[in-house]
Amino acid sequence: MYGCVGLFAACALAGCGKEEEENLQYLNLSDIACTFTGEDNLPFKVTVYAYADWTAESDASWAKVGDKTAESFTITVDDNPDSAERSARISLTAGALSREITVFQMASGKGCVRFRRLDDFQNLGAMSPNGRYVGGYTAEIPSGNTWYYTPVIIDTETGERQALGGPYKEAEICWFHGTFAVSDNGEVFYQDSNTSGTMIFDLTGGHYAPEAPGGVSRVPSVQATSLGGKYWVGYVRNDSDRLYHPIKWTDGVPEWLPMPEKDFRGYDFTTGVMARGVSADGEVIYGTTWERDDSGMVYWKDGEVKYVGHDVHTITPCQLYDANWELFDWNLANGVTCTAERTNISPSGKWIAGAYKTEEERNHQIVETGDYPAFYNTETEKTTIFEDYNGYYAATVTDDGLGVIQSRYGTEGYVVDVEAKCAVGSVSQWVYDTYGIVIPDDCGIIAFSPDLTHIWGVGQRGYALGGVIPYVWYIAPPLGE
């Protein structure tokens, strides 16, 4: 069963201050569509934000409105006896305002993939490479002003949700600040603000920090794992030169990865390099430089380190004004970049997704002129740039060259054929064509499992009188398959 996010508001304003507040009229919904399987469905809850009493009515006898409160109601559906998908509409009215929710139901006897939205995960989450596990954490303040965190893992094969210990008081064991990765063995790698490194929780509820290379006192950060969990990649700040260095772990044992000779602009490193993602077999790794805001992409293959998109990477000397309006020498850099994304590599390591950025010097100042989705082929060492999508970036890609590009300034995203250099369709349209279910238009795909049976993504949920908050979601096969 699935819920689609939407937010609408209508306002009639008169005067200002208290009078304006009293005349504000709105009818906002947490969801504007939902999809049910053909049979054995649970109720779906919709939250309503309304300035006055409201009503909800279905135009089909099989889709029912129930459990109505002042702030919500549920949708329940009868089993579908037909061999075709069907739909209904639920109309809501509050005063002069009205909204609709579209209800889709698949045919009975037909397995339907599951779309699950995880609104309660804090700072998003992560999916294991094979799609078996989804991990994250929840946060609550049961009393006083102290936060408590519970690490959580979900088995997508069974739908079982399991706490990996806790709830833990803030800064106890781990100060949860994000979820980096989940292994196929059920290990969840959390960002720990106590150490600026990683704390790993497993299915037994045990927890431990990753091993650091010899001579390093800090706790490393694990960013991603290979298929099967044999290899991890990440980074740590080295005590000797105080630079961040990339690391690869094999069965938990760390080794340094080589650094490029120069940074993205051709200068000596002052901050370092971080490994971010890894192929299914651990043979290809990518990462980013962390010098200023350059975020140039690098990759490791066959024992060598190169810049992603080195075929389009250019460095051009120029002069810029400093804060005192005095000229100084600087290097402009065009090339492929990314930030902290950890799923930009295809399973075999053939493709790496990123953004091709260009800049110019104008009147002795830097002007960014391009920000395009880009896909680099590690076999041919050639970059494919989607010049028609300025303001977009490439988020992930499959071995067959099925890529996802996402807008930086909105929720719009597309699935593209990299080799043909064309869009296949919007993310929601591609999911409907491929899996037969409707998902929100604002959903973006973060990662695919190698066989495309599982998808991990992010969306935006509307609330109250405006604004959005992000949530994560996944698609998985029907239970029992």
From TrEMBL:
Coiled-coil ranges per UniProt: none
Residue ranges annotated for the BACON domain, each copy included: 53-105
InterPro entries: BACON, Ig-like_fold
CDD domains for this protein: BACON
Name the UniProt record assigns to this protein: BACON domain-containing protein
Provenance organism: Alistipes inops
